[in-house]
Amino acid sequence: MTVAARRAPARTTVDGGALFVYVVLAGVALVVGGILFSVLLDAFATSWFGGWLPDGYTDRWFRAAFTEFEIPQILGATAVITLAVAALGVLIGVPAAYVLARRVFRGKGIVQLLLLLPLLLPPITYGIPLATLLYELRIAGTIVGVIVANLVPALPLVVLLLTPFFEQIDPNLERAARVLGASPLRVFARVLIPLAAPGVLAAALIVVVRTLAMFELTFLTSGPDSQTLVVALYYAAFAAGIRPSQQIDAMAVVYMATSLALLLIALRFVNPTNMVVRVRR
User: Fold this and answer.
1) Which residue has the higher pLDDT, 207 or 255?
2) Residue 280: its pLDDT value, please?
3) What is the pLDDT of residue 225?
4) Where would a tag sit more exposed on the chain, N or C end, judged by fewer CB atoms within 10 A?
């Protein structure tokens, strides 16, 4: 081989499949980003007819949305519901995830598949019977009823998300703590929970984001004082009366900003691939 041939730059080949994926992702990002950007612009626009940009900008639509739709009260109810669902989901789901990760029992695969059902089925399919039951128990229309309804899909999500975290913890750490005299409860609280803390925090944040976005179950079981932001946004868009589109877009911006902030925080603590459930036969 000559010196000129050795110095010749290597030819790079273009992967057609990767290029296709990048083009599709860029197109999706462009469309979704354009829609979100137009909503953001319209929320601050004084008026917008026929041009590429609004005629002017103002924040009065946000002030009007906060007063007419009682945004502070709705945000308060949303915070109570989402935090309560996340807390109860973690409180019940962490021990259940540990049992699934450490114990081998008959029907374990069936239990894991049953946990997947509330996540795979459309919420409306089991939301109507669930709402009927809650109305018969006279807790529908209250914050308690909304919390119970949202726990149905939230609890399996916590269990399935945390099971891989507990599986990755070396069982020898538990045995060593037991040899040193720690009780099972102390091992769970002082050894396992600190090691699984990133997963627990991520599960709680993801449940909060999911509860914020859960429309069907909340809509079927909420009342005037127990609406979350997504249900209030629906009423603002479709309830009787004429409202400026900028005012509705202002509520949509508040909702999107809240959900996006929580989702970004959650993604700092969890790898989405860890959410894949390993179902054993």
Assistant:
1) 207
2) 41
3) 83
4) C
